[in-house]
Amino acid sequence: MKIICYGDSNTYGYDPHGGLTLRYSAGGCWVDLVGNTLPEFCKIFNAGQNGREIPDNGWESAEGVAGQLAAVTEPGCAGGQKDLIIIMLGSNDVLLDGLSAEKTAMKMKRFLGAVKMEAPGRQILIIAPVSFRKGYWVPDQRYIEESEKLPGLYEQLAGEMDVRFADAIEWGFSLTDDGVHFTDDGHISFADGLTKVLKLWYSIS
Does the N-terminal or the C-terminal CB of the chain have fewer CB atoms within 10 Å? Predict the structure, then answer.
């Protein structure tokens, strides 16, 4: 079973205090931490990228990315388990583009539609991204308020699109003083929460 983690800087493992690399060391990002707990038949891949927004009609198109995800996954594999695409996006749409939570959710709906069209038969899990906190990257309360709306909108969307949903805020992660990115302990908390979800939902033990 292949697990593709498609996200932004919090998937990539961006560390605002990480010196020259600005990235948590190998093994410190939640993707690596989850991978260390999975059985051999599960292979997890980090497809995070700093600054990524939900693919739409900009420099990453919804259909183009969906095709890429289809190319690296299979609708069925050994043992009958389908590959899984995990999507955690939306933070940059709110923070960098100034979109409302509602418009961000509309972009996600279009993207999910493209993924389901281009990559049928794959399992899909959308994770509501971190709710911002006051910090030097989050100067305005409006960004915090919009980010806090995303979980409810994504949960509703997941029901409409027949995909799985998880709310990262339930996993008790901590953020750095920029108000956006996970601390090293935040990655650990996130990984613990996601691991429990994967093992419960996808019969991974």
Answer: C
How confident is the model over 154-205, as pLDDT tens digits? 999 999 999 999 999 999 889 999 999 999 999 999 999 999 999 988 777 6
Query: Are residues 52 and 8 in contact, defined by beta-carbon separation less than 8 angstroms?
Result: yes
d(CA 9, CA 171): 18
- What one-letter code names the amino acid at 38? L
Using CA atoms, how far apart are residues 51 and 43, in angstroms rounded to an integer? 25
pTM over the 0.85 mark = yes
**CA–CA separation, 4 vs 103, rounded Å?**
25
Length of the chain counted residue by residue: 205
Instruction: Please report the domains of the chain, with CATH numbers, ordered by start residue.
Output: 2-201 (3.40.50.1110)
